[in-house]
Amino acid sequence: MNELNRIREKNKEFIKEGMGMKSFEKQYHTYQRDNRKAEVWKDSNDNWGCRFWENKVWSKDEVYKGKSESYAECAAENYVEGIKDVR
Q: Is residue 46 part of a domain?
């Protein structure tokens, strides 16, 4: 139970700092390699973004305001290739 409380507190910090899961509208692409997966999404403000997973557990969402779809695709590809780290 102690570990669960630690995770809950960490999630509260993420939400407070705006680092929790984002509200994306539509998923466009999925990249996957080994235990890493990245999804390319678009939000309600037409911003591109990525949702990152490791070992089937959500790691982080990033929104790329003013950037292109190809920018988000590169971020997703770099993550699954191990070039980009989101922790």
A: yes
Kindly state whether residue 3 falls inside one of the protein's structural domains.
no
Find the domain containing 31 and state its range.
22-87
Q: How many structural domains is the chain composed of?
A: 1
Count CB-CB contacts under 10 A for residue 85: 10
For 21, residues 6+ apart whose C-beta sits below 8 A from its C-beta are 51, 58, 61
pLDDT tens track, the chain, 87 positions? 577 777 667 666 655 555 667 888 899 999 999 999 999 999 988 999 999 999 999 999 999 999 999 999 999 999 999 999 998
pTM: 0.77
